[in-house]
Amino acid sequence: MNDAAHDLHAPHFIGIGGAGMSGLAKILAVRGASVSGSDSKESETVLALRALGATVHVGHAAEHVPDGTSSVVVSSAIRADNPELAAARERGIPVVHRSDALAALMGGRRALAVAGTHGKTTTTSMLAVALGELGLDPSYAIGGDLDAPGSNAHHGTGEIFVAEADESDRSFHKYAPEVAIVLNVELDHHANYASIDEIHESFETFVGRIVPGGTLVVSADHDGARELTSRVAGREGLNVVTVGAAEDADVRVLSVAPRGMTSEVTVVLDGTELIFTVSVPGRHYAHNAVAALAAGVALGVPAADLAKALGAYTGVRRRLQLKGEAAGVQVIDSYAHHPTEMTADLEAIREATEGRVLVVFQPHLFSRTQQLAEEMGQALALADASVVLDIYPAREDPIPGVTSELIIDAARRAGAEVTAEHSFAAAPALLAGLARPGDLLLTMGAGDVTNLGPEILEHLANVATNV
Fold first, then answer.
1. Smaller CB count within 10 Å for the chain: N or C?
2. Separation CA 176–CA 260 (nearest Å)
3. Separation between Cα atoms, residue 434 and residue 300, nearest integer Å
4. What pLDDT sits at residue 5?
5. How far is residue 355's CA from residue 139's CA, in Å, rounded to a whole number?
6. What tens digit of pLDDT does each residue of 130-185 get?
């Protein structure tokens, strides 16, 4: 770990409003640090941090880095020419990566790190809620808000620290957990990984960071996860617990029974059958809950108590979050942006509704679209009708020839009914016009497509009023 990561008594966060950065800033503020930062725009998260005493500027400028700053915290999304980063280097202020800061915060706690290409935020959230329900008051850092701005992190009084471990930039190599979860291993983050073998090597390194005598909880159902299990099998001092529907799983999922927007899950753990409720729909989320169960048991939490407590989890923002209903149409927000996630959420919604399923999808990143457009199009074929927006670039520059049309063409080849919409502002009216009573409409993607939900509901309400 970078020694500078320990100097966090007066940190300055560049991009403090981001999901990962804001959580660390919140924990440090609660611990008594003098926190400052900057972000590109005002947000509910920024307001929540200010309420905790943090000084947050809108926009990036060298003068935003205050005198007395002990370290400047950055994520991999911060460009090298950021003026605040340049100012830190000119002034000799230590620059700390977000992962080093998180590793420092976990020091002295029993760390539980949740990794995988998909499902990290949900599984971390399930553990945070369930352990809290049992009175264990864990600290946690999550890549999404549980129910309100600022709820992505907590400084707890208990000995457990639950953290989402991000593989996208290999930053999860910084952690040394007592228990680690690997939900799945697939090729993604194409700007940082050239092949699936590089992904496997990265996850192997992460598993190698588990403390001696610690536990790896890993899926028995996903091919990539099984490959990882075979690669680390026999490592001295590593306990491996496999979970899933596969017959050879150590914690076996016997059934996932849909109950509307919830699921009833039956598992066998240490020869004992447990039945519990997961308050979000779909097999994908149920299996996340079982991984959370196995990880908590590895930390010594009684299985029956934890299974019951997992029922207290009611969702996280942007993970199949109900935004509202108007004119008989439910609008739900989905963070899914990888084909596997898209398929899982669409299958879950299919099980939860008898009406039509409509999707407005915003592709995330040019590099991901370039590599996975065909699979994204195939996933959209699970919807009754889709609207595809332009690519949300996030941190990337455009790639010549890579547009949403690649996904639209693939979707049409798969038999999907799909419409291109290049005007973000025009999308709400278009979607309200497509919807009819009984439909369920998903806003899907990791970008600002989430902002369309309230606007779609407003258009639907106006349509209903004028009928």
1. C
2. 39
3. 51
4. 41
5. 40
6. 999 999 999 999 876 555 434 789 999 999 999 999 888 888 999 999 999 999 99
Active-site hit among 45, 69, 117, 121: 121
DSSP annotation of 87: H
One-character DSSP codes across 352-393: H-SS-EEEEE--B-HHHHHHHHHHHHHHHTTSSEEEE---B-
What confidence tens digit (pLDDT) does each residue in 358-412 have? 999 999 999 999 999 999 999 999 999 999 999 999 878 999 999 999 999 999 9
Average pLDDT of the chain? 90
pLDDT at residue 449 is higher than 60 = yes
260-292 residue pLDDT tens: 778 899 999 999 999 999 888 778 889 999 999
Give all domains of the chain, ordered by start, each with its CATH number: 3-95 (3.40.50.720), 107-310 (3.40.1190.10), 319-466 (3.90.190.20)
Alpha-carbon gap, residue 269 to 283, rounded angstroms? 18
Catalytic residue among 26, 45, 124, 164: 164
Q: Which of 26, 69, 117, 120 is catalytic?
A: 120
Asked if 164 is an active-site residue, the reply is yes
How far is it, in rounded angstroms, from Cα 327 to Cα 431?
13
What CA–CA distance (Å, rounded) separates 301 from 304? 9
Longest dimension (CA), the chain: 69
pTM of this prediction?
A: 0.75
Contact assessment for residue 260 and residue 440, using Cβ atoms and an 8 Å cutoff: no
Nearest residue to 207 via CA among 186, 227, 162, 177: 177
120 in catalytic set: yes
Distance of alpha carbon 244 from alpha carbon 254, whole angstroms = 9
